[in-house]
Amino acid sequence: MSQQGLTNSISRSILIVDDEVHIARLLSHHLRKTGYQPIETNSPEEALQVLESIPPDLVLCDVTMEGMDGFDFCRLVRSNPLYKNLPFIFITGNSSEEIKAKATEAGGDDFIVKPFNVKELSLKIEALFRRMEILKTYGTTEGSEDPETRPMVLLVDDDKLMLQMFKYNLERENIRVEVAYDVNGAFEVLKNIKPQIIVSDIMMPGLSGFEFREKILQIPDLKDIPFIFLTAKGAEDDMITGFSMGVTDYIVKTAGPKVLILKIRALLSSLIKERRQGETEIKNAADSFQLAVVPSSFPVFPGYDIKHWHKPFKGIPGGDFLDYHRIDDHRFLITLGDVMGKKWGAWYFAVAYAGYIRSSIRMILQHTKTASPGEILAEVNKAIANDAKISEIFTTLSVISIDSQSNEVSYSGAGDLPLVLLREDGTHEMISSEGILLGFDKDADYKSTVTKLNPNDTLILMTDGILESVNSEGKPFGESGLEKALDTIQKQNDKFLSFQKEFTLFTQGNFDDDVTLVTVTLGS
Amino acid sequence: MPNFERETFDDIALITVNIERATVQYTDEFKLFVKTAFSEGYTKIIIDFGAIQFMDSSFIGSLVNIVKDLRTHNGHLRLCNFSVPVLTMFELTRMNRVFEILPTIDKAVQSLRKIH
Asked: What superfamily in CATH does domain B4-113 come from?
């Protein structure tokens, strides 16, 4: 490899996945020598955990491994939008056409056959990195092929011949076209389809193009769609009327299809730019919100090990929220909640509502330090139920307080899932609460139950995103998944990591909802 | 088959849900369907959940919304024919205390007939 290659490769990280420890070690050694940063893992599961925290620059993966094979692993990695273009090289002992076909089908970029020469591997890695640079600079052409993401234009004109001509020309430009011969027909189309642009004739039998525009302006869902008038008349009066109705543009039919296509193209590209900007802003806002929804670090409480894991749905925070409060030197409070129906259009509303509940909890704690979890829930519930504006929304909430002197846990829940208590001897029990969800009945009763923890006992709290998450066959994790996971993790030292692993393996990293997990372990 | 169907007798509307996975994509349609029956004067509503094998929290949220709305307007709601997984979910989260759940349509009708 050239000197230049060396400098280029500095600080690039490569994730190695191979269950043969000595091969992984060897690869790691060579890669480090070549100037890369290797990350060694010996199973897909371990590799997935790395991918959760450190995005590597390339993956080098064995095909034959125990449990999940390299192909399945690659598919799983590719299912994460973040890793759609992550360079992925398979290492295989078998160079048959079948294996090559499978590697490509699974989403691999290249493969190398064992026993391989280290130089060949370095060259392949370099080549892939170079290809990635090109991709980054020039972008991909993807999207234009998928019929669902191709732009769509609605054309409304009573002149069928003219319609066919425009339709033909637009479709050749890879733009989808729906046509209607009058305004009624246009509204039929708009019932099911929301186009990016509407192009309408002015003079039509029945309702005119102006009347069409007026009606559209009254429909909140449609009024912002760019609207272009298309007419044979070039009269100035018409243009003025058109622009006063907030249309985007005005095209005289005699100008021909080329002008229409150019204008539509220009309009579409400015729309795409606008949308990209909007998406970036939402993501940025979401990132800063997420810090507020779940604490950014694990709390320190003497004698206890408390950890949490939170995955917002599609990266956008929704209804789950988690808080820790230190009440005094030996009492600690954990509150975990879930605002129902978080996948509404107005996701930020769920976040704001969660904030409202959290601040009322803090207020109660400031006034009464001795309040039990049940008393806290009853107070919060009353505040919410009395607030008419938000009584349409419902929340589940678990409140547990831990006393480090007596090692007693006091718990009360509102429509939440039961707590799971994993005893040191490997048995587990569910601690259920009787309370109904917050905001439903202002006089609802919330009782506290007290449980004593022994050393090495672990308490698990979760939101229903865990039980509702489905695997690739559409089967929910559910209670049976939970029972199975509990059986597996009771043999493991780190209950937190092993539960996370079981759950991620089941769902393959695709979650249907916000997912939050908290574990509390009493030290020995 | 439509997602939701309605049969009526006297002041009772029986709404049958024909979906297996009741998720967020159906919540708006479902809410509208039930509230339409109510606004047409059927103050006693039975919902048959026999077909549902899975219900997500958004769908449960829409049910809570419906029952709250009905109660404030002197309406009555009975849910019946739960599959085991859905009933378990309701019991786990105490939703069985928010709703009146009956095993069969007949039992639901009987319970509503007692109300005048």
From this structure: STAS domain (3.30.750.24)
